[in-house]
Design goal:
There is one protein chain. The protein is an all-alpha fold. It contains three helices and no strands. Helix 1 packs antiparallel against helix 2 and helix 2 runs antiparallel to helix 3.
Length: about 160
């Protein structure tokens, strides 16, 4: 029965993929046009700012003001990028912990029937499970760097 449905399912999947690709191409073309027009607008805005500043402060100072603003924005963007990367790495570490515990849980559930059938393995597994549960319940919490224990020189 599945052999009869395979051509139909394949053609449906190919049609959906083709529609998604054409939609992505169309979006890419429009986004390119939008980016070019925004870049042209930004260039004219910078020229207008330069002319306005040159009339008020002179050519050298207007160029220095615009360059300083550009460098300031670049530094701000760099700081934002680093903060964003740090947050993303932290989320990925948390996801990896959850994934690892999920895999271990699935492996334990898959091995449970074999352990429960064998009396020797069951006798070995009970203390291991008890020790694992106890270590999870009494695990030390990690301290943050700001939560350091008080030292002898703190009162000074």
């Amino acid at each position: 029965m599945l052999k009869l449905l395979t051509p139909l399912l394949t053609s449906l999947a190919a049609g959906e993929v083709g529609l998604a690709v054409s939609r992505a191409k169309r979006s890419a073309i429009f986004m390119t046009v939008i980016a070019l027009l925004a870049l042209i607008g930004l260039i004219f805005l910078l020229v207008a700012a330069y002319v306005s500043l040159a009339e008020r402060y002179g050519e050298i100072y207007s160029a220095l003001i615009l360059a300083g603003c550009a460098f300031g924005l670049a530094i701000l963007a760099y700081v934002i990028m680093k903060i964003s990367d740090s947050i993303a790495r932290k989320q990925q570490r948390e996801r990896a912990k959850v994934d690892a515990s999920t895999v271990l849980t699935i492996a334990a559930l898959a091995a449970a029937p074999a352990v429960l059938r064998s009396r020797v393995l069951l006798m070995l597994a009970i203390p291991a499970v008890a020790f694992g549960g106890l270590s999870l319940l009494t695990g030390k919490k990690k301290r943050r760097p700001s939560e350091r224990p008080p030292s002898a020189g703190d009162g000074i």
